[in-house]
Amino acid sequence: MSFSNLLSLQQPGFGDGDFKHTPSPPSTHLFETLKSIDEFSNSLTLRDVEMQAPLSEELTVVVLDTNILLEYLDVIQVFVTEVEERGLPVLIIIPGVVIYELDGQKNRERLSWFARRASSWLLKKVKERRSVKGQALNETCKASGNWKKRDLDAALEFGSERSNDSLIIDCCKYFLRQRRTFLCSKDKLLIVEAESEFVLTISPSRNTFSSRDIAEALFGAEAAARFKFSKYHATYQNSSENLIQVIPAPEPDDDVMDVDDDVSSVPQLLQPSHSLDLLHVQVIDYFTGLLLELVARVAGPDVRSFGCSNTASKHAPSYSRKDFATWGAVDCLDYLGAKKRLPRTSPRVDTFMTRPYEGVGARRGQDWSRRDWETALKGLGEIGDDWQEGSIRESVPAAQLHISRVFAMPMRPTGL
User: Fold this and answer.
1) What is the pTM of this model?
2) pLDDT single digits (tens) 260-279
3) Among the listed residues 217, 219, 184, the one whose alpha carbon sits nearest the alpha carbon of residue 86
4) In the beta sheet, which residues pair with residue 114?
5) Where are the beta strands (DSSP E) in 139-217?
6) By three-state DSSP, how is residue 79 classified?
7) What Å distances lie between residue 71 and 74, 165, 207, 277, 362, CA to CA?
8) Could you give the CA distance from residue 249 to residue 33 in angstroms, rounded to a whole number?
């Protein structure tokens, strides 16, 4: 059963106990992204992913709940990056029901932005077939061999309002049969239920949840320190604590004695902490991904020629001399601007979409006025309109809501 098959709730073969979902309209970008994740998930098995990972016999599985993806996506992104860089045998699993729950957040004003960021990142990582994988239909403990065939007994046990939790537990139990498995969730009731099924758990117990915390749960404190997993740094979240700038006291650095450390392994001492700076970084990263998708659609097969030394002359635009995989927002906008005139805005969209101090006129999020923010986002929306790119047009309002929210909050006048 595919993701799109669930558009109709009255399908032949559906029993009263089957998993049912009312998805967003199929024309929306979020729906299409989640549909793609579902399809990729069903084309992969645990063995397919393991074949590309070292030390597969020692593989540890981490199952993520929806609340972790919505609130701690930045932490998960850092953890996955560090696991891949260090070649550690960890596989992140996204339960099928979590994919549907992300779709359900599209109309919740404060959560839409976070759901879109999560779905975009998940699709990218699932396509890579490395350390992130979605649950396939047959990766279940159910006798039916299909996780979407809901057990009536489970629904009665959990109650209708928590029946999705039974599907997450089922996912954990399936992978627990094969590998050491953890559930990462903020839901205390779900944590208790998972532990009763002998599933190990990870739950953020403080505002300073970090990649290091996950690594310590999986490998122990000594190994997490030795592999230099990152400690806490602030991120823009939906929580009010983040918006009013509660910054925790710095923790002692247990790496200071490693005098022979490579400079590249030393964590940055200065991280942005102002909500506008943090939101600005998220806007740059997320919309850069959407712009790359747009360029790939417009350029088609030509994207493969970018960066090829035998095709790009020294007089060619700078973007054409770069491998497409290394492009940023400025490269995308330069390419699109060569095809069709970009909106004239002040500040320019490409300047706003440049990380602080990495280009002429680039600055921190807090250094842009509210009018600057609104103008830049309006410019992005106009680009979406000009190119009929639904992903950009749908995402701009989700970001604009948080811009208004942050500017309405009491904040420190400056940040790091």
Assistant:
1) 0.82
2) 333 333 333 346 678 899 99
3) 219
4) none
5) 180-184, 200-202
6) helix
7) 8, 18, 11, 17, 28
8) 39
